[in-house]
Every structure is written in structure tokens, then in C-alpha cells.
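Dear Dr. L.,

I hope this message finds you well. Following up on our conversation about the binding site, I have prepared a predicted three-dimensional model of the protein together with NDP. For your records, I am including the exact sequence and ligand specification that went into the calculation, followed by the C-alpha cells. Please feel free to forward this to your student if that is useful.
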Amino acid sequence: MSDSSFLHALVGSMSQGAAGNPTVAMIEAAFAHHGLHWRYINMEVTPEDLATAVRGAKAMGFRGFNCSLPHKVTVIPHLDGLGESAAAMGAVNCVVRRGDQLIGENTDGKGFLRSLQSLQDPRGKSVVLFGAGGAARAIAVELALAGTRKITVVNRDQIRGAELTNLLRERLHIDAEFVLWKGDYTVPADTDVVINGTSIGLYDPEARIPLDTASLRPGMVVADVIFNPVRTRLLADAAARGCRPLDGLGMLVNQGIICVHYWTGIEPDAAVMRAALEAAMGL
Ligand code: NDP
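The resulting structure of the complex is given below.
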């Protein structure tokens, strides 16, 4: 049998309710396009079985796996180490086998950063970030590591918002401010990038972010983590104000690109992966 007919490696996704995950199509499209005889499989894992599942993946020689909710934080004690940003944010979405070790990385924020860099390098820029949950934390940490000048965290829950702001100040030493979100937020005029890192807008194209859209200025980058729908109300409002909109699909594709790179060492074709993802989502 020729070498090319062997299945070379497995990676996977450990989640609950994994069925129909469109990222499977995206990752496998990359493997196929680059002639890699790899498979990416969904594995439904309960919280009680997580430790056994991680040991099993290691024993079976998996090159790595993704972790979705609710495993992003609880997987950490079962790993051999963490990358820099995963350690700072305390969450892992991508596990990579390096030698005989399983190392936890976080590619959500890196995916966002790469998507943002197609429009705007955040170095020296001022950012307003709505939200302080997992996605917002990942984005904030990566923006701080990339040299962002200032991050204003706007969040409804005081404790989560203050926690993220303290992390940015104390661990990453950047200028960070917390604003408790009450009523419509007015974006300061010197803001370069506005990001919705909340779940507002998911599956609801009419959902409105409490924000004074008149404070959005032409030229600002306005980004959304929401990728379903791709065109959110925030992005439509931002485009109408002359801002530069950035959709959440770019973050999703780029986090996948970085995972494939970590697992395989190749730089996968972004267009192939985005097309496969869009097809799987029926876009
Ligand atoms: P979390 O549950 O960890 O956090 C949700 C955040 O949204 C919190 O800050 C919460 O505020 C805020 N929020 C929710 N509803 C409201 C509301 N009505 N008003 C004000 N704030 C609100 O979720 P994640 O951070 O994991 O995910 C957030 C979104 O990001 C999801 O929709 C997810 O699909 C998307 N996502 C997209 C990715 C991509 O690749 N594009 C990757 C990862 C996530 P509070 O703290 O006050 O409760």
C-alpha cells in the first residue's frame, strides 16, 4: 500500500451537542485541498468523561483537538502546558500535540486579530469592546499582546467586566478602562475600533446593541463576533455611518486556519476554508 493511502492523523472537536458543526466541513476541506490524509471528527464528550477523553486522545495519537463549551476551561488541568495567550485568558479552544505533550492554545482571539489585521493593525489604536465573556476575553488578551494602546471594556455585569479590565491592566500592562453598560453607550470620538464581543445578535438580524449609532464615525472599524447571521444589524448600521464593517465569519475562518497550522505545520488556503464553511452554513 502506498504511503498516501494511509490515514496519517486524526484531530477532533470535543464538545457537547456537536452534531452538525460546520467547522468540520471547513477543516476537512483544508486537509483535502492540501492532500493531507487526515480526518477531523466530532466527539460528543460529557463533563464527567472529559479527563478520560483527553487521555484517550493522547493514547490514540491524536495530533490535537478543539474544545468547545463547556470544556474550554475545565480541560486545562488535563493538559501538559499552555501557550501564552491561553495561559493569560485561562481558556483553551485548541489542543496541540507537541512531542509527547498536549499543549493548550487559544485561537479565538488570534483568529479575530488576523481578521482585524486585514482592515486595521491594532498597534497603538484605541478599542471599545462590548462584552466580557469567553470571546471578549480572548479578543482583549490578543489585542493587548498585539500592542493596542487602550481597551475600554463595556459590560452589563460589573464583576465580569472589572475582572477582564484588571487582567488587561495587571497581567498585560495596558491602559484599560471598565464602563458599566447602562442604556445606549456613546463611543468616544477618538476610538479606532469598536467590537461587539457579546452574544447579542446571534440568530437575530434585528437585535440591537445598546449603542448610540450617531457616535460611530466614518472610518472606524466596527467588528462583530456574531457570524450567524453574517450581516448583523450592528454591521449594517456601521456601514450606513461610513464605518468599515468586519464580520464574525472572518474570525471563525481564521481561528480554524491557525488550528490547522498548529496541527499540520502548513499554512492552509483561507479561500478554500471560507468557501467550505459558507457552503456548510448554507450561505
Ligand atoms: P459568553 O456567554 O461567555 O459571554 C456572553 C457575553 O455577552 C457576556 O459579556 C454577556 O454580558 C453579554 N451579553 C449577552 N446578552 C447580553 C445583553 N442582552 N446585553 C448586554 N450584554 C449581553 O459567550 P461567548 O463569549 O463564548 O460568546 C459570545 C458570542 O461570540 C456568541 O454568540 C458566540 O457565537 C460568538 N463567538 C464567535 C466566534 C467566531 O469565531 N466568530 C468564536 C467564539 C464565539 P454579561 O457578562 O453582562 O452577562
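In brief: The mean pLDDT is 93.

With kind regards,
A. P.
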